[in-house]
Amino acid sequence: MTTLNFASDNIAGASKPVLDALVAASAGSMPAYGTDPLTARLGKTFSDLFEREVEVVLVATGTAANALALASILSPWGLCLCHEEAHVIDDECGAPEFFTAGAKLLGLPGAGAKIDAAAIAAAADRLPRHEKQMPAEIVSISQATECGLVYRPDEIAAIGEVAHARGLKLHMDGARFANALVALGCSPAEMTWRAGVDILSFGGTKNGCLAAEAVLVFEPGLADSLRRRRKRSGHTVSKGRLLAAQFEGYLADGHWLDNARHANRMAARLSQGLAAIPGIRLAWPTEANEVFAILPSRIDAALREAGAVYYPWSDKSLAAGEAIGPDEVLVRLVTAFDTAPESVEALLAAARGGT
Amino acid sequence: MTTLNFASDNIAGASKPVLDALVAASAGSMPAYGTDPLTARLGKTFSDLFEREVEVVLVATGTAANALALASILSPWGLCLCHEEAHVIDDECGAPEFFTAGAKLLGLPGAGAKIDAAAIAAAADRLPRHEKQMPAEIVSISQATECGLVYRPDEIAAIGEVAHARGLKLHMDGARFANALVALGCSPAEMTWRAGVDILSFGGTKNGCLAAEAVLVFEPGLADSLRRRRKRSGHTVSKGRLLAAQFEGYLADGHWLDNARHANRMAARLSQGLAAIPGIRLAWPTEANEVFAILPSRIDAALREAGAVYYPWSDKSLAAGEAIGPDEVLVRLVTAFDTAPESVEALLAAARGGT
Amino acid sequence: MTTLNFASDNIAGASKPVLDALVAASAGSMPAYGTDPLTARLGKTFSDLFEREVEVVLVATGTAANALALASILSPWGLCLCHEEAHVIDDECGAPEFFTAGAKLLGLPGAGAKIDAAAIAAAADRLPRHEKQMPAEIVSISQATECGLVYRPDEIAAIGEVAHARGLKLHMDGARFANALVALGCSPAEMTWRAGVDILSFGGTKNGCLAAEAVLVFEPGLADSLRRRRKRSGHTVSKGRLLAAQFEGYLADGHWLDNARHANRMAARLSQGLAAIPGIRLAWPTEANEVFAILPSRIDAALREAGAVYYPWSDKSLAAGEAIGPDEVLVRLVTAFDTAPESVEALLAAARGGT
Amino acid sequence: MTTLNFASDNIAGASKPVLDALVAASAGSMPAYGTDPLTARLGKTFSDLFEREVEVVLVATGTAANALALASILSPWGLCLCHEEAHVIDDECGAPEFFTAGAKLLGLPGAGAKIDAAAIAAAADRLPRHEKQMPAEIVSISQATECGLVYRPDEIAAIGEVAHARGLKLHMDGARFANALVALGCSPAEMTWRAGVDILSFGGTKNGCLAAEAVLVFEPGLADSLRRRRKRSGHTVSKGRLLAAQFEGYLADGHWLDNARHANRMAARLSQGLAAIPGIRLAWPTEANEVFAILPSRIDAALREAGAVYYPWSDKSLAAGEAIGPDEVLVRLVTAFDTAPESVEALLAAARGGT
User: Fold this and answer.
1) A231 interaction partners in chain D (CB closer than 8 Å)
2) Gap between the Cα atoms of D222 and D239, Å rounded
């Protein structure tokens, strides 16, 4: 049966190479708590991939990765500047506040859930300097953004520059790192530390892993506190191979990039197909694996009728001048490594049928 | 090659039924964040197993399970009474303190890492009642204990009684729940809520899972706060099937009990074999899957020489009158579901060779 | 010399009756930690004043009072709705986040730093209900507001109603409680619990005390947790008479109301005088003891030149349609119980001289 | 009427010079939040007193001072070594755990509530080095101790040496700093930084102030985080003169030393008088302003009958070999700057009458 489920990229299971690696690693004895040979090997793999020595701390969830990364840099009275719809501010039930023991996230507006360097500079410079007010200490950007857009390396570099000039660090929430990377066609290094990123949440779960995320530290000196924070937050899995094996399968032979390219292609096809239907327009361009479409209510109804699954989305970050009409809905459709072309075509057919 | 690795039961991988269930569950679309059908089914399975409605919250690590369980009951200024060598006080890098935002664990002495009802009552009654001092709110016991002993249901019931009589709740850290259960030959209900346990960390990882633990709540009304705490601590895995599938394979057809029985049998064989070697004696009786032996240093050296892996252990909880001699070491050897009889025999042979 | 210092009402010292009471209470032995007879008496005084039994917890700072009050109600993952310029969100360096172990304050816009019932209802109803998002648990309003306005009892009652209908509690930050009260001419009960306020920060410091604030709880059952929170945050002064004596002098014979009436009268005079000067207009009406004026820059310069001290202020909460011109500044001038009429006249003369 | 109240040194009020300074400072305008001239002057006074530049952070309670000092150094997963009866571990309702967001205090035994350098070294060296266990980061000693003993400068220096050799800082809880200082007859510098103390809680409240404590930092670089922590914990009083004025009166003309000398003299007289009574013996020598006596129960009863007020005390830190008999009680009697010689004589007379 053709599924019409475009709810999220976390409704997919594991891709075959990931699962194979996990199965292969599940037999026999291995030292615990990340002292196993797979984890050691993986450190090397990441360093090669990023063309420099990186510190790698593995966890099972993106929320853990983000919260640990932010907590490693923020003091309990510090401020993190991010987009007002960022995952860290909106979808983690206060995990950053918990892990930092009280730091605050300051949401900035921005079309497409992007924040630009100028807006960050202005916001940081506008903050009072009195001890009564929390000082900005870090900027966090999502790659891709919560509206499916991708920061170009030069945009990231501009943000890194205004951040560093003010003594702030730069964090990237790379829950969809691979999708953004293949969209840009650049290297991991170009998209991160060469552009000023200090600390990265490198996601695997949404692109073929079951539960595998990594905090990558380009800033030396944070690894020890990160490991302590991971342990005391219960995120140090005793059988470390669980996480390392998934990443081993994920990163081998460019499998992760293939997964991301497929998901992006499916999104592009879906996006073009929808945009060609009279009455439908895109809320934001489709740059990675998420399609944000503004649908006439009758098409939305027809799609639901046909069994399609997807989420309504906030219009808060529409470009200036854009608006949702009274008979329209803004929705998000997400593709993944395992989205079948038939599913895309079936959804498009159902949408066309609704016109 | 025969492994001589008895370092811990977390050096083992996954048992076959667990892995099979995980592989089977890894294909296709499923709703995220624990709203999948496997997780729903598992709730039913646990309720059947425990002969009553239980709330189930799944996580990937034992530290997370313990910290969430304690935080659900303790106020930030509350006191948890536990054994002075309990995992929660000694091996979690302050996770309970973190999750509770500052509560304290008060370690009580006790031979074999057991605390008895009378000692708990005395400690609780001795606490000052002034607002300057933190009030006791919960008792936590480990089943099996950190010295490999098992609380009998009547011992647990006695603890539950003194706890409840003073307004305290009772938590059981069941990292080795299955090993204790088969050692006692009683039912899960008898070992927990029928004996007064209010909240349980039910371990799967040390007995055949890769990373699967459950907080089971017998106390109604805690499930919502537990779920919030899980989310904000980053422990809500988005692909919930990862945890549910492991438990499905684990609990089906008594597989978990078979695993535990095997591990306990291997420990019994190892224990008897060691105790029969002149110069070796047991620090505590072998009741579950851990053997604590006091070895002459020359046997310890011979075992290390032969490639055996195991940890030295604290003598803090030796029975009164017992002591380690100057040429002796106290060591822990742990068996698991996959410990080969040949490994046990090889270790014994090496030990005998060292005499 | 006539002072032109209108920086804040916390630049004033203590009023005579407050100081006299403190001096009188400073001799001889008294039980510690708030078990002294003054503190006991004060509990009765507050209950009389509020026409019902209230729980009273004394502290030395307004930030402590607010943070303790919010933490007594908010869960660590809860949301507090307040104005986006509220003191709790903007001027306490994250104290509410610290005391709650990570709760979040959600700032709502509103002219004059007031939030109205409809806006609160809309914001609360707009919040997603998923476990990923923090649920609203409390509303906090400042009386008087950060723009010097006063909520009328019916406005408070409307807020209380929408809050309670949604399961939210209502907190009032009464740092300028007395100033608001005499402005309204109503009773403390009418301005608080009769209008739905559940917990109150009752300020004394800005109106004649040196350092005396009280958390008043109309909600029974919070007193014990409040006392624990106070102790563990270091806010239980050992010589409890320090705080109780200040309040004794403050509340006796309506002294606190006299202080507030004087401050408000000085503000009214200042406000009228400024508004009569060509080129000057008020940013918001002067309802309590704070004057917010929009000054031509040349008058601002003349005032500074004359030695006047006051702060520039944010224009974020101007009424719709209002704006600060390029050659204008928005400033705040605060009067207190000890503001001399001559100071007001001198400031007005200096302002007139700048035209 | 002669009071027989020896419950604590915090039952006394303020001494005259302290109160005079407070009254004098309470008039007129002064900048808020510790930017007033008194606070500035006080910084200089403390630097002169300690013969070096010190950072001074004023607060109203000893618990706040201790918790802020410890939190400025401890990471949330760090361990503080202190005596098992230390105020920080036993009498602050978890304030250090709260301010540090979860650090732990590890109590060490020691006669007279003293911990010696060798015991600290042994405890620190015994700690496991695995990431599962919290690492020691600071040592905290109380001067005078909870049993009224005083560390000599050479004892402090020995502790400082073993602490620093292991990368640990040294904190002194100087709630009774003045009493210890005059007992030793040394300089503040000799008793602190010259002996290796890195951070000090300098108490004023128990020796003549109403509520005035200072965190003194000899370690440069902590002042900014201390100020932030103070603000976010609600301990930055807006009328900073409250704290600065008390200390100004306290420190002027050696008044604080006079107060302490008087209290110590009263304690010495009380101690000698009690020890001379048949059946009474001292639990620990009287070195500062606290007397710990082991009384026959009949004398205890007679004293209570006569209206005497004092607390029973723990026998946990008796010297090896000492014990309380079945008809004996261990009690604490505390003298203060305002203890009248007549009160001491009256208590002694009542005790003699009980024999």
Assistant:
1) 77, 131-132
2) 23
Assess whether B247 and B236 both reside in one domain: yes
How many Å separate Cα B85 from the centre of its chain?
13
Residues of A in contact with C90 (CB under 8 A): 132-133
- Residue C64 CA from chain centroid, whole number: 13
Query: What local confidence, expressed as pLDDT, does residue B337 receive?
Result: 97
Q: Are residues B263 and B349 in the same domain?
A: yes
- Residue A194 reports pLDDT greater than 80: yes
Which residues, at least 6 apart from C16, have a Cβ–Cβ distance to it below 8 Å?
none
C1 pLDDT tier (thresholds 50, 70, 90): low
Q: Is the peptide bond before C144 cis (omega within 30 degrees of 0)?
A: yes
Same domain (yes/no): D176, D69? yes
Residues B91 and B183 in one domain: yes
Domain that holds residue A345: 256-353
Distance from CA of B131 to the nearest CA of C (A): 6
Read off the tokens for C226: 């409040």
D234 class by beta-carbon count within 10 Å (0-12 exposed, 13-18 middle, 19+ buried): buried
Alpha carbon distance B143, B199 (integer Å): 13
Which string of DSSP letters, residue by residue, matches D60-121? S-HHHHHHHHHHHH--TT-EEEEETT-HHHHSSTTHHHHHHTS-EEEEE--GGG---HHHHH
User: A211 and B11 in contact by Cβ < 8 A?
Assistant: no
Q: Is residue B135 part of a domain?
A: yes
Tell me how far CA of residue D265 lies from CA of D286, D289, D330, in angstroms.
Answer: 10, 8, 21
Given B199, B224, B254, which residue is the final one in a domain? B254
Tens digits of per-residue pLDDT, A23-37?
999 999 999 999 999
User: B33 and C131: CB-CB below 8 Å?
Assistant: yes
CATH of the domain at B39: 3.40.640.10
Helix, strand, coil % in chain A, rounded to nearest 5 = 45, 15, 40
Let me know whether A338 and A265 are in one domain. yes
**Chain C residue with Cα closest to B229:** C77
CA distance B251 to D177: 62
- The answer as to whether C225 is a domain residue is yes
pLDDT (tens digit, 9 = 90+) per residue, A152-188?
999 999 999 999 999 999 999 999 999 999 999 999 9
Q: How many residues does chain C have?
A: 355
Residue with tokens 């000492």: D322
Show the tokens assigned to C345: 């006249």
Contact B102 D104 (CB under 8 A): no
Shared domain check, B211 and B99: yes
CATH assignment of the domain containing C283: 3.90.1150.10
Mean pLDDT for the stretch of residues A51-64: 97
The residues, ordered by sequence, that sit 6+ positions from C330 with a Cβ below 8 Å of its Cβ are C283, C292, C293, C294, C295, C312, C313, C314, C315, C318, C324
In a domain, D332, yes or no: yes
Do B282 and B320 reside in the same domain of the chain?
yes
Chain A interface, best mutation among B87, B239, B246, B266, by max A CB count within 10 A:
B239
Number of helices and strands in chain D (H, E): 14, 11
Q: Does B6 reside within a domain?
A: no
The residue out of A253, A270, A305 marking a domain boundary is: A253
Instruction: State which residue of chain C sits closest to D34, comparing Cα positions.
Output: C11
**Whether D92 and B132 lie within 8 Å, measured CB to CB:** yes
What does the alpha-carbon distance between residue B258 and residue B262 come to, in Å, rounded to a whole number? 6
The number of domains in chain B is 2
D85 Cβ under 8 Å from any chain B Cβ = no
Give the orientation angle of helix D297-305 with respect to helix D341-353, to 10 degrees. 130
Please give the order of strands across the beta sheet that includes A311-312. A281-282, A290-296, A328-334, A311-312
The reply to whether A167 touches chain D by the CB within 8 Å rule is no
Both D239 and D104 in a single domain?
yes
> For residue range B13-51, what is the model confidence (pLDDT) as tens digits?
999 999 999 999 999 999 999 999 999 999 999 999 999
